[in-house]
Amino acid sequence: MSVRYFDVFNGDADGICALHQLRLADPLDSILVTGLKHEIALLERVRAREGDVVTVLDLSLDRNRAGLESLLGRGVHVRYFDHHYAGEIPASDDLEPVIDTAGGWCTSALVDRHLGGRFRAWAVVGAFGDQLDALAARLGTSIGLDACALDVLRNLGHTLNYNAYGVSDGDVAIPPAAAYRLVHAYADPFELVAREPILQGLARQRRVDLENAFAVPALRRNPNCDVYLLPDAPWSRRVSGELANRLILAEPQRAHMVVIPLSAGEYGASVRSPRGRKPAAVDFCRRFPTGGGRGEAAGIERVGRGDLQRFLDAFEGAWSTETARPAAALHH
């Protein structure tokens, strides 16, 4: 029976660019398993058997522990590249972990290090997409990219990352697997930008979505944190992560949370913690069953309507002893 190869990856800029580098170095006819940004527990979808090879990129091991242990128990060989909270890493001859959770890294940069910098421009795109601008600039400078070139890759990273947010494929312009295939058609990211008009369309849509988001007033705001509850609309689900990123860039000393309505009376949230203050966003989010992330950027996949008020109170209590302004009605 022939060996099958599976590539399992987060559908955001970092996951796509990490896999792209690997497959430029080692082309394979693999089975793609991916999802939108919030779809973290993907290993349970992998139907691999003994002798198959699974490569995992940019997905928390902690959130995929059951799926990983099941694969290893079936004799599947797993290569695991990631920078999110991992917890205890299983001991197995069939597991090749390339995991660094120390902070300041993204998965694209880990793959770049693994490959000796062979396709570093794509690691720059992934790092920009993960809001690791200092890392991206350092990697880009090492291969001679000037400020103009870095701006091109910054915009590409932000656009690919923006395209990964949504509750369903209907919320985004390009489903994650198609986004990867679009990127993988190009060895040079500058050629991708020049030749694919859909990226310009995505960038325009991103600007409009951000304008809509910035018109929404804060639901809660005090000197240490703020909460934004966006309306129930596709643009809200697309832009929630970038809005959280913009907020922390503008006010890095405060905590920020962007909440979006989901189906069936549930909510999702993107959380950004103040620079250098505890708890880190990932530690706060891991208090909840569907929470996870890395360092100062994390999220909660689902919170029920009945739990929302307590969730908002817990967020404020994590970083603030101030009394928040009264919450608005939760009917967005």
Concise synopsis of the structure shown:
The protein has 332 residues and is α/β, with parallel strands linked by helices. The chain has twelve helices and eleven strands. A six-stranded mixed β-sheet has the order 6-7-8-9-11-10, sandwiched between helices. It has a five-stranded parallel β-sheet with strand order 2-1-3-4-5, with helices on both faces.
**CATH class bucket of the largest domain:** Alpha Beta
Task: Sum up the overall morphology in one term.
Answer: globular
Low-confidence stretches: 322-332
Summarize the helix and strand pattern as letters: EHEEHEEHHHHHHHEEHEEHEEH
CATH topology-level name of the largest domain: inorganic pyrophosphatase (n-terminal core)
Written account of the structure:
With 332 residues, the chain is an alpha/beta fold. The protein has two domains: 5-201, inorganic pyrophosphatase (n-terminal core), CATH 3.90.1640.30; 216-319, Diaminopimelate Epimerase, Chain A, domain 1, CATH 3.10.310.30. The protein is built from twelve helices and eleven strands. It has a six-stranded mixed sheet, with helices on both faces. Helix 1 links the parallel strand 1 and strand 2. Residues 322-332 have low confidence and may be disordered.
